[in-house]
Amino acid sequence: MALTRKDIEELKPIIDRTVVKFLGFSEPTLVTAAVSCIEKGYDKNKTVGMLSHLSCCCHVKQFIRKNYKTRHVVIIW
Q: Distance (Å, rounded) from C-alpha 6 to C-alpha 66?
């Protein structure tokens, strides 16, 4: 599913709120990297691999597993 620039811009605040809810603080680097993974159409495992270097690996894996479905609902990633 190809996303428009508008779709991507609408996703950023949703992903940011999800990051804040999960981590307890905003992490712009994680949001940017997550949006990039969505734009590229990465699956859950590839997204974990790409984002795991940004934070504690276990936190990123848990975050992605809990929130991956956002890619098709809110574009449930």
A: 25
